């Protein structure tokens, strides 16, 4: 039930069921159950913004997984640990966690874990301003995701690489990646990823079609006005911050940075 509620966005109910499941696992001395429930609770707590609590849960999962010799579980737990450190703004610890995930996945030959770790390392290296390294990780992740047919992760990393190409001013390659993302996400019916890719495409057009900037800003503001979910609003405010920064409008950029 916890998984069902988590996958449908009902985080509070998911957390309640995971806690009940954890208590039962503790009572019957089911260490695997304790590890799994702590890991699931960490994901939900992160989504709820309760990062310190999430940190405690994921560290507990790592401790138990190591005790049980569960290397694949340990690898994924390090991935979740990296995600929490990313949200906390501790990018160096996040990178260290993702590298541990990658090392374990490579040790046991787990290609899915390798692909996910490399995608995570691509993202964190952008935040650490290690652009060349980020591109290398994205390229390697994308190759594996194609091989393993991980279409949803492939779409994410193609979009992330497009944003990286955008930062480098390589708009042709950025547009090529975004076009692939839109084909994939529409075929898979992934509305959130379609939404993100369409915003990336607007950002590319903003750089390449300066005469259309006013109309593009109006379009993004209209998207913002129709957003119902907080996460979507945050994404659009971040885009507006980027666009106004490009337009050298520091006042409006700062407004949207604070809103994001």
Could you outline the blueprint of secondary structure elements for this entry?
Layout: H1 2-7, H2 11-27, H3 31-47, H4 51-68, H5 71-88, H6 91-108, H7 111-127, H8 131-148, H9 151-168, H10 171-188, H11 191-208, H12 213-225, H13 230-246, H14 250-259
Helix pairs in contact: 2-3, 3-4, 3-5, 4-5, 5-6, 5-7, 6-7, 7-8, 7-9, 8-9, 9-10, 9-11, 10-11, 11-13, 12-13, 13-14
Question: How would you describe this structure in keywords?
Answer:
14 helices, 260 residues, mainly alpha
Task: Quickly give the structural class.
Answer: mainly alpha
Helix share bin: over 70%
What is the molecular shape? globular
Number of helices: 14
Given as residue ranges, the uncertain stretches (5+ residues, pLDDT < 50) are none
Average pLDDT, rounded to a whole number, is 90
Query: What fraction strand?
Result: under 5%
Q: Specify the biggest β-sheet.
A: none
Please explain how this structure is put together.
The chain is mostly helical and 260 residues long. Helix content is 86%, strand content 0%. It has helices at residues 2-7, 11-27, 31-47, 51-68, 71-88, 91-108, 111-127, 131-148, 151-168, 171-188, 191-208, 213-225, 230-246, 250-259. The model has no long low-confidence stretch (mean pLDDT 90).
Brief account:
By secondary structure, this protein is mostly helical.
